Amino acid sequence: MYARGDAVFFAGTRYHEGNRHIEEFSAQTCQTCIRTYDQLGKVTPCISDCTAEVHRVDVLDDLRLHGMSLENCIQCRTCEIVCPQMNLRVNPTYEGSGPDFFGL
Ligand code: SF4
Ligand code: SF4
Fold it and tell me: In this structure, which ligand is nearest to the CA of 79?
């Protein structure tokens, strides 16, 4: 049985520093989405369905914000597909950043 973190290891994921290959179009939209799912007692789809535990909620004062650990991403694009607000885009990386997929 594999855990989600295993996907990062087997995908051979490596990124250049400062890599920002996933675009979040509106932070406000994410805040509203997180609040809505909180009220339902659930986590947002980007968190629940990400293959590699990239998405998270960051707490800043009384705000709950969408955050990402992009260095873990294996570029499956699930988050882009499941985001109910179409608020994400997974872009191609550059300079050889990303997974090499040999271990998958
Ligand atoms: S599911 Fe989409 S809108 Fe909701 S927090 Fe994630 S990226 Fe933002
Ligand atoms: S593309 Fe999205 S769902 Fe897939 S690993 Fe990266 S952040 Fe997670």
Answer: 2
